[in-house]
Please model this.
Amino acid sequence: MMKPIKVGMLGLGTVGTGVVRIVEGHQEDLARQVGTSIEITRVLVKNLDKERNISIDSSKLTDNVDDILNDPEIDVIIEVLGGIDPSKEYLKTALRNGKHIITANKDVVALHGTELMELAEKSKCDMMYEASVAGGIPIIRTLTDGFSSDRITKIMGIVNGTTNYILTKMSQEGAAYGDVLKEAQDLGYAESDPTSDVEGLDAARKMTILAKIGFNVNVELSDLTVKGIAQITKEDIAYGKKLGYEVKLLGIAERKDDSISVSVQPTMIKLNHPLASVGGVYNAVYVYGEAVGETMFYGPGAGEMPTATSIVADLVSVAKNMRLGTNGSKLPPAYRVKKLITDEQIDSKYFLLLNVADKAGVLARITQVFADYEVSLESVFQQPNATNPSAEIIVITHIANKAAMNKVMADFKNLEVVREIRSVYRVEG
Amino acid sequence: MMKPIKVGMLGLGTVGTGVVRIVEGHQEDLARQVGTSIEITRVLVKNLDKERNISIDSSKLTDNVDDILNDPEIDVIIEVLGGIDPSKEYLKTALRNGKHIITANKDVVALHGTELMELAEKSKCDMMYEASVAGGIPIIRTLTDGFSSDRITKIMGIVNGTTNYILTKMSQEGAAYGDVLKEAQDLGYAESDPTSDVEGLDAARKMTILAKIGFNVNVELSDLTVKGIAQITKEDIAYGKKLGYEVKLLGIAERKDDSISVSVQPTMIKLNHPLASVGGVYNAVYVYGEAVGETMFYGPGAGEMPTATSIVADLVSVAKNMRLGTNGSKLPPAYRVKKLITDEQIDSKYFLLLNVADKAGVLARITQVFADYEVSLESVFQQPNATNPSAEIIVITHIANKAAMNKVMADFKNLEVVREIRSVYRVEG
Model:
């Protein structure tokens, strides 16, 4: 029997509390899998005297991180502080001191993952981060182990619960963005400063991590184009529905030959696509592999217990590796040269909502622009606007390349009959 | 650099061909992950001279299994023959000869998995079987690794593509079972003898495997209650839809305290449940964990390339273990004592379709029977039957225990006003 595995935890907020609950509640099952017991021996907190809704021996709490990072007895560090500073430095020190690290911190993993991974390899330590993307969905394992034999060509993710909650409500109730956002803030589903969620930045960090693992390329946050949900109107959603689409904030990572592209943007997704029915705060990741075809993984994207589940699953993996003496044996995921896809190479359908002058020949002028750049159309739908002498035209294109669409858009801006390009969405499914 | 890993394959049908395609097509990626190359050196076939739609060196083919099982150079055996005999004996010999085994064979794993697993442990060999359940969905890994920290309490699976195809068609087209089955046979989606699929036996074998892993209990096929889809009428599906349900052949494994129950049966599932929209030949497995909550894993349940993906992912795992010297280190999954749930402990909603005499007081008589056994009703819906002087009553109960429902059913059989209990379904979602 191996000696107990000792864990130091940085942070005891919502997720940290969940980790304590699982490790203590499932002692027997964990020991059965690992071959020894797992003990959380020290926990870093800001305030030693704070009331907590969990019973934890106060002698385990410390407000001095060195008590944990420099404790030679501690084998594994779980970081649930969030944010870049000081988490990143704590994790680096932990690795330098020979401790395995498990983190739920998408910011650190997205921005400094490569550096940490290299340090982990050098220190023969494990670095695990299942909880950093899509909370309770074991998507990191699925990409690295489950699909290890396949060539993944597309990953599409609903990886931000707040925006998915907002879009689901807008769709179900025909409500406006601002109203639903306020309601979500009142319910605690959205932060008082919702920028990171609604502008797509949180999703972008998660997609950086998924794309890197899925494509084995060193994707950086700055490689992504990112667009949030604040411009989505209830009309967009209503028109989408009419044509059989749901609007979702999708992270899209795709590979074409040797080049990749990663983006986050509101997307019209066909109602019969498995991602279209992912509602509320749930997350889902759709993975297309050349051999396996279409797959999707659905579950809670955040929350105390789901996120803690992923962290403790990582802890089980680290502990098994310790028992087998195989820590730090994971190959670094980014062995391919990074080449980014150009606009000419991005092929997709598009949804456009145009506000146009309501007079003869307008539709002919507009469809001619598409024809000029060889963009063919799947459906066109025109209706008068009730309030002023103009009409609305909705167009869904066949698959077109983005460069051609950019030219179409530029022409529309110079075309007198087009009063406004009200909305442009990528279309999937 | 380790020496190449040599693989012998038993069978070169559809799935075997896919395995060759992936191993040859992804040589570089596989070597990158494993640290050495992987070679399929011998393949057992029935007919050496058969034309094959894959180019393979004819010197690799053999019709003598001993050329593979007794070849000391071969490290890993992949079995894609299917059926119990002679696959089981081949796998046992392989293990006795110190070879790791990978199998896609749900029959062998469901019926003889424990015996093989014990032999594998004794021989310090790996035994992997990701492809035996739900083809391309990495559900075995998800249960063993992804949810290693959680206590799974329910697994519901659409794990048979043929029956899901038939039910999807019946639902979409309002067609009768017999007609759709014939069409599926013509298209090659159903076997000419469809018994194993439509009677739920194939799904039962897969659920045996999932329940065993999910609950760490030595579930045997004989522990399951199994019902197929042949009795489902288009009326059942139409009434279900009217009330917001889709009929699916579901495997349901559930745990209550220390007892478990595993079954396969047609089930009415609420339209907003993630399993309800799984259509066609696709598979999906819904997993509920106490900590993680609701999750679902969706993908192709069969087919050359999806199944081959899972087999080669297993091969990567075996090869990594070889590199690290950790083969056979997996703990056996069934360490809990098996206790089966009694009917009194199975709680579920039910859907009933009754044909009753169309006269005063009938509904009162019927609802009294439910009341007698304290089964409360969620909705009741009555309509006259166009063709004869009787009425149809559809009832959806609140959660009731199965023992009480059995008593309700027995009373209905003796009740003069109930002409026929036309359908009974469990309800989920």
Observations:
- Chain A has three domains: 5-135+304-324, 139-300, 343-428.
- Residues 26 and 32 of chain A are 10 Å apart (CA to CA).
- The longest helix of chain A spans residues 304-324.
